[in-house]
Amino acid sequence: MTSDQDEFDLLFKIVLLGDSGVGKSNLLSQFCRNEFNFESKSTIGVEFAARTLKIKDKTIKAQIWDTAGQERYRAITSAYYRGAVGALVVYDTTNYDSFGNINNWLTELKENSNENIVVMLVGNKIDLVNLRSVSITKGKEFADEYQLNFIETSAKDSTNVELAFTTILNKIYDRIIT
Ligand code: GDP
Ligand code: MG
């Protein structure tokens, strides 16, 4: 077997955070589906998938970590955060509580991660237009206040999913390389 697909210049670990049910696992599977270099691993309590892609002049292996349901019990271990250079903090635009909990996720992230971590706020499920309960303005205001990158997505119809990941990867690249 050729090992060509395992060659990369840099590995970026990105963690997914947010309440149970907001769509973290589906964002991950959308981003990694149809991908040349897809891989997925299951360990005790933690799952991740990786995709290798070109960011600027470098081949980046994006290793995306997904909780395996521990977020339900606020039982995410420090190993989950270890070495992460990016975080997608996700809420469900049809569930105001999940937006209200973003603060808690940011606090937990701050306690467990490197201060240089690139954070992006993600409002998911925008395909459910009639059920929306968090406006894009609210999301943007929150992101501005906390100086986070911001995007709205639909993991269902894949709106902005690629853009969410490539944006955070580019920001991480800029922070690391320059
Ligand atoms: P997680 O608990 O954060 O990993 O959330 P999941 O990815 O398991 O998704 C929870 C539920 O929401 C599942 O029934 C998904 O099918 C659904 N879901 C996830 N993302 C979207 C989305 O963008 N739009 C819609 N309509 N449903 C979604
Ligand atoms: Mg999940």
TrEMBL record:
<comment type="similarity">
    <text>Belongs to the small GTPase superfamily. Rab family.</text>
</comment>
<keyword id="KW-0636">Prenylation</keyword>
<dbReference type="GO" id="GO:0005525">
    <property type="term" value="F:GTP binding"/>
</dbReference>
<dbReference type="GO" id="GO:0012505">
    <property type="term" value="C:endomembrane system"/>
</dbReference>
<keyword id="KW-0547">Nucleotide-binding</keyword>
<keyword id="KW-0342">GTP-binding</keyword>
<keyword id="KW-0472">Membrane</keyword>
<protein>
    <submittedName>
        <fullName>Ras-related protein rab11</fullName>
    </submittedName>
</protein>
<dbReference type="GO" id="GO:0003924">
    <property type="term" value="F:GTPase activity"/>
</dbReference>
<keyword id="KW-0449">Lipoprotein</keyword>
